[in-house]
Structures are given as C-alpha cells and as structure tokens.
Amino acid sequence: RRRVKKADWRKREKDGGGKIHLEDNHREDKSALFQDRKEREKREKTKMKILLISYLDRPVTPKITAARPHLIFDLSQELVKRGHNVTILGTGDSFAPKVKIIPVIKKSLSAIDALENPFHSHTLFLAQMAKMLLKIGNDFDIIHNHCRPETINLLVEKDLKTPIITTIHSEITPERDEAYSAFEKSRFIAVSNSAARLAKKTK
Q1: What's the pLDDT score for residue 197?
Q2: Dihedral sign for Cα atoms in the order 173, 179, 181, 187
Q3: Residue 42: its H or E element
Q4: Pairwise CA distance, residues 173 & 177, whole Å
C-alpha cells in the first residue's frame, strides 16, 4: 500500500475523499477520551475523606457570617469543589451543599433555650463531641479541628490513627500558648502570620 504523503492527504481532504481525514479525527477522539479517563483516575486517587470539626455555639450555614463557621463553610465548599468527600461534626442545624453533617447536638447553643448552667452543659456537649470523634475519627483520611476550645478534641488524638490539624481561631495569649504546647503531637495553624508570632512555645 502506498504511503500517503502530507500533500496527498490535504488534497484528498479537499476533494472529499475523507477516509484518512476521518481516521485521523478518530485517533484524536480516542486520545482525548484516554486523557479524560486518566484525569478521572488521577482525581479518584487523590480524593480524600475529610472531617471538619465545628464549634457548637453557632451552626455552619451559608447565612452565618460569624468568622469561625463562615470559614468552615467556605472551606467545605472549596474542598467539595476539588472532589473531596467532606463531613462536618457539629450542630444538627448546620447545612452546606454536598456535605454530610454529623450532629453532636440538634441545635446550636445560640438557638436553644437558656440553660440552667451554660458552662456545665457546654462542657458536657464538648465531652460528647470528643467521644464521637474517637468513634468515627479513623474513618477519615484527615481531621481539621476548628472547635472551641481547640484543645478538647486533642485529648483523644493519641488514640486515633488519622492526623488532626487544628486551626487556632482565638488570640494566642501566653496562657493559651502554654496550654497548646502541651500537645506535642498536634499540628497547629494560626489564622495569620501576626497571630503565629504570638506562639512562643506552640509549634
């Protein structure tokens, strides 16, 4: 069979002899499909199961503008956009599109009736959250802790295989710096460079 030269291919395409032209397009289509499949496989391999731990004072919703839940909401949506499976451990009145909510309490503390002893109730709910984290934590690839106080969930960290990253939203005072530094295994993130400079002992 005679090899078709480049000039001949152009001539046949112009004259409507399109067999070679169609075969060339077919090869390009197959190549594009192969690349798409490789990209999908790559995304599947890098997809992670991520647990975001909220705090119990307010729900995480698109309408809440308070700094901590607002950040958690935006973070959850960006992670979903990147193809990850995201779960929030927090309050039952939280909502974020395509995100699973695991409630520690049905409503946020700001939405429930006045409690006889708010400190006692809040501490009890936080202890419940830590126990839930201990139960489900190893089902995830990574845990991002935004709870308040930040250290409550770190009490069970040594019993989990899944790494925990904690964002410190509160001001890093010398007293808090001392407390955070006691958790040597933990990984902490400050909300800004200036906040990070306040941490003298926390790494």
Answers
A1: 92
A2: negative
A3: helix 19-46
A4: 6
Q: Could you tell me the pLDDT band of residue 25, with boundaries at 50, 70 and 90?
A: low
Mark 34-43 as b/e (b = at least 16 C-beta within 10 Å).
eeeeeeeeee
Q: Which has more pLDDT, 84 or 109? A: 84
Q: Are 186 and 155 in contact (CB under 8 A)?
A: no
**Ramachandran sector of residue 98 (left: φ over 0; alpha: ψ -120 to 50; beta: rest):** left
Segment (H or E) for 179: helix 174-181
What H or E segment, with its residue span, contains residue 91? strand 85-91
Say if residues 107 and 60 touch (Cβ distance below 8 Å).
Answer: no
Please, which residues have CB within 8 angstroms of residue 59's CB and are 6 or more apart in sequence?
A: 69, 90, 91, 93, 94, 95, 107, 108, 111
Q: Which residues pair with 142 in a beta bridge?
A: 50
Residue 34 has pLDDT above 70, yes or no: no
Q: What sign does the dihedral 166-170-171-177 (CA atoms) show?
A: negative
pTM: 0.76
pLDDT at 9 over 50: no
- Whole-number mean pLDDT of the chain? 84
Q: Are 130 and 38 in contact (CB under 8 A)?
A: no
User: Among positive and negative, which fits the CA dihedral 48, 54, 59, 61?
Assistant: negative
